[in-house]
Amino acid sequence: ADEHTPRDKDLSSDLVAALPRRQDPIAELLLYQGCWLPKYWVPGVIEFQRRFNPRPDDVVLASYPKCGTTWLMALAFAAAARRAYPPAATGEHPLRRLHPHDIVSFVVEVFARGEEAKLDALPSPRLMSTHLPFTLLPPRVTAGGGCKVVYVCRDPKDMVVSLWHFLRRSCKLPSKPEDLSFDELFDAVCDGTSALGPAWDHVLSYWRAAVARPDRVLFLRYEDLQRDTGESVRRLAEFMGRPFSAAEEAAGAVAAVVELCSFGNMKALEVNKNKAGSVASGNLVIPRDAFFRKGVAGDWANHMTPEMAARMDGIFREELLGTGFSF
Ligand code: A3P
Hints:
- By secondary structure, the chain is of the alpha/beta class.
- Helix content is 45%, strand content 13%.
- The chain has helices at residues 6-17, 42-51, 69-80, 94-97, 100-103, 107-112, 116-121, 139-142, 156-170, 182-191, 199-212, 222-227, 229-239, 246-250, 253-260, 263-268, 306-320, and strands at 21-23, 28-32, 35-38, 59-63, 105-106, 127-130, 148-153, 217-221, 278-281, 284-287.
- Helix 9 (156-170) packs across helix 10 (182-191).
- The longest helix is centred in the middle third of the chain and has 15 residues, at 156-170.
- The site of adenosine-3'-5'-diphosphate has 21 residues, from helix 3, helix 9 and helix 16.
């Protein structure tokens, strides 16, 4: 690992001071390596890029916010740890007493808090999560040896609806969070200036990586997870090097993972309800139940006009034209 000296810190702050910036309704964003990052994330990103040492069997769960991160965390954990923790219909399971975000950490936040020793202590295979685009992951992750990455994408119209509801419940705005304008958020996504945006570059970075290295990067869609969760769980388990055996299939192990992680089940668990406390992240204080809202595809139709939908679809279609990927 690189030696971490005070000089590194000085370099980081000079670098941060020189970045282009814009004020988003939620946070100040800095344009770092082509991505609009919330300012409070940048030091953690720099530390992660410099100092993370992947193990070959690590699995990084990646997503643009509100695209199915929490579901993916639950499914990946339940599938990876199924021998230690059988996901049977009843009985003890970590997902019945811990929020998925307490089981799988956001790796940038771990580095931002200087808590990377906690990552070293995790048993293999380690599961971690990130909202960074592929292009911002540490070279040690993306290079030949690297580790495994699973990405989940979602129709951007549903993403922006989900994000609006989430931020209205979570952010510490000077104004009342309930006043957060849907149109402003929608415009930022369309303009490519939303946090972690441009959103089309985000999805493309992982799409290209998955095409180039399918053994290293698995690309999933929220809508496919909805359509056939079991099939996605099989792909996930196989990708993580833990395919379901014929005996497990016969015993209903895939269905047990699907049921444990289902929206209805997760939302109903006491630990995922608000009274179990909030999750702090930068300038967000997130009620635990804010990660489980409606859990369907197509809710955008209840929030935007057909014209808005056509505008967003058109922008993404154009930005993704000729790439081989479309929503
Ligand atoms: P909605 O707001 O549309 O309901 P993320 O986990 O990336 O923050 O994404 C949150 C979105 O995923 C929310 O979408 C949430 O309801 C949905 N979600 C969370 N857990 C889910 C599950 N187990 N099954 C299906 N959707 C889930």
